[in-house]
Amino acid sequence: MSRVLVIVPFPMDASNLELRKAQLRSVKLGDGIDFEYRPVRIAPANYVSQQDSVLADIGILEAGIQAESEGFDAVCIDTVSDSGMAALRSVLNIPVIGAGRHAMLAALMLGEKFSILAMWDRWRHLYTKTLAELGLAHKCASLRSAGLQPNNQSLLSGKEDEFFPHLHAAAIRCIEEDGADVIILGSTTMHEAHSYLAERLPVPVINPGPLTYRLADAAIKLRLRHSRIAYPSPHAPAAERLRTMGQAAGAI
């Protein structure tokens, strides 16, 4: 049985964690693979500033740094920001899959230009960073926001009738005005809107979280992992210091 650790980028209770686990229903992987969801202990309130990005990297690194020794075969990061991905790749010898960059790369297997459909404008810097790192800005037709305030705990539950039409209207503009032929959901917190949008839009809609599960399964079966040249190991791993930080954060 293969085991995959899914790192959830915010501390949360069991009921809200179930909303994250619901992403598994969007992909059929069959027997032989199991997913464990783990909320971080260190996190910003939201991902809207450079300070937030630092905290997110540390929190996700702390949550996953022992994944290999705990017997996991891969790690999926449940945020399109890809926070902590590079750091975890430097200390783990198992695949580490980030939702953001892999959604963009998958979009180019399906079309020529993609748009990123976001909840609100304050996430824009997350996408421009990854686009710059991948050199794919010219393949991004647009970054569009539906102007909606996200909730990283309850996600879209209870707001479907209000939020889904706004997201659909913004996606239509991506296609008709910006020239997108693929839509990427700009956050794993938006996964509940995927079916609604996929049924109503004339182009593929990528759901980043479930995509990481499929890619993790493929990487395990193909015995692939990241390049150690691209992600060199640290001279002095900081697992113990990070554990102490995580315990302190969890006690607050």
Automatic annotation (TrEMBL):
Pfam families: Asp_Glu_race. One of its GO terms (molecular function) is amino-acid racemase activity. It comes from the Bacteria. Gene3D superfamilies: 3.40.50.12500. Belongs to the HyuE racemase family. PANTHER family: PROTEIN DCG1. This is Asp/Glu/hydantoin racemase. It comes from Microvirga guangxiensis.
